[in-house]
Amino acid sequence: MGLGVGLFLAAVGAVLAFAVTDTVSGVNIHAVGWILLIVGIVGIVLSMIFWSSWAGPGYWSRRRTYVDQGPGPY
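RESULT FIELD:
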């Protein structure tokens, strides 16, 4: 699940949980909204965690800094 899908699920869940006032027999719309909201938030958090580690483990420790000392003595 990507960031866009997580945002979409969280938005739909928030609308169902807070804005819908109708009732449907056999389905609790507010519970479905809360479930979608929680799944969307978890998806967003997981996407951010994996997005920050996209370079792989040890990426920052593999970087080396090269310092040029200038021309050598002749």
